[in-house]
Amino acid sequence: MQHVFDGHNDVLYRLWNHAAKGTDPVREFIEGPEAVGYTGRGRGHIDRVRAKAGGLAGGLCAIYITSGHLDFDKPDAKGHYATPLATPLERQPSLDIALDMAAIALRIERAGGWKICRASADIAAAIKGGVFAAVLHMEGCEAIDADLSALETFHAAGLRSLGPVWSRNNIFGHGVPFAYPMSPDTGPGLTEAGRRLVGACNRMGILIDLAHITEKGFWDVAKLSDQPLVVSHSNVHALTPVARNLTDRQLDAVRESQGLVGLNFAVGMLRSDGREEADTPMSDLVRHIDHLVEMLGVEGVAIGSDFDGATVPDEIGDAAGLQTLVGALSAAGYSDEDLAKICRDNWFRVLACAWHEKPAQARA
Fold it and tell me: How far is residue 72's CA from residue 87's CA, in Å, rounded to a whole number?
């Protein structure tokens, strides 16, 4: 079994959403959703039991504020769609939700369900001890003020990664819409507040994630940041031309910075027709990995599943099915050394770089 460190999941959002309906998020993560009454699609993708079964050793767990009013556009006869950007969110309710999710993460840690990792040594120790290694990430910074005071507080709570925007605009920058086919060059980039945010992340050792940002925003960060360029959960625009995917020119920049791209399992970002169909074959994931390896080298490719935030292929299903992808990559000719890099070691390298440290030996 190849143990996996995953670059993006939304398990905290699922747990928060269920907790609002009266269930215990700590018990749901540790014992599984069935323990609190969720079956079928309501089970989501990640809990401690399924993570162990699939070799999921840890990952970046997103604090994500929902745009509940967002209505996704229905594809036309050709499969084309263009969902308008979600409406910007107000800061105070966003901050309240972000604090709720951070509190859930801390409660899970106190109960022994996972370890919130603030350094490479924490990841190494958690994996060695068989404990899920959770890194707190913020997906869209609506909870952060322009003066960045809240950033200090969240950093103290364990935040070590953030994406300035989700697929909506905020005070820091502009996001790309959910659309097919469409270029990622859909609007402006960083604001002045966004530039200050990048500088603060560089100083504090917080990874900057370029998923969801416009192409102009991508290039703004590339000019300002001293970190490797990281896109935690995205795929190849040349293969699936959704706005969320990366052009080859962007991939060139990721390679030159010694950064990485995490393969997103979202089926609409994998299929050549862009459709949301869960019967998407493993060959679609492999062809995106192949292209990423061709552009970035095997050292620049990782996994960013988007578990609990997307429709994933039926052949994977949830965290327990991760080895299906590992097997498909092995059958496609990837060596055990290649798979170790793709499954975990590349994430350890870029996190250590962003965190201003040398990576600890975190091999599973």
Answer: 13
Q: Encoding tokens for residue 7?
A: 């670059």
**Alpha-helix runs per DSSP H in 297-357:** 322-331, 336-340, 346-354
Query: For residues 316 and 266, is the Cβ–Cβ distance under 8 A?
Result: no
3-state SS track over 132-201: EEEEEEEECCCCCCCCCHHHHHHHHHCEEEEECCCCECECCECECCCEECCCCCCCCCCCHHHHHHHHHH
Which token pair is 32?
């599984």
What is the pLDDT at residue 69? 75
Two structure tokens written together for 331:
């059958």
Please name which of 121, 132, 150 lies closest in space to residue 26, comparing C-alpha atoms: 132
Q: Is 353 helix (H, G, I), strand (E, B) or coil?
A: helix
- Cα(350)–Cα(260) distance, integer angstroms: 8
Please identify which residue in the block is written with the tokens 């323990």.
35
pLDDT 10s digits, 177-216: 999 999 999 999 999 999 999 999 999 999 999 999 999 9
Instruction: Say if strands 230-234 and 260-263 run parallel, antiparallel, or are unpaired.
Output: parallel
Nearest-10 crossing angle of helices 192-204, 215-224: 50
Q: What is the percent of the chain where pLDDT is above 90?
A: 95
**Domain 4-354 indexed as CATH 3.90.1640.10:** no
Q: Which residues lie across from 319 on neighbouring strands?
A: none
Q: Is the whole model's pTM more than 0.90, yes or no?
A: yes
SS3 162: strand
Residue-range domain boundaries for the chain: 4-354
User: Which residue is listed with tokens 């929902």?
Assistant: 66
Grouping H, G, I as helix, E, B as strand and the rest as coil, residue 292 is: helix
- On whether the CB atoms of residues 345 and 58 are closer than 8 A, the answer is no
Amino acid at 158: G
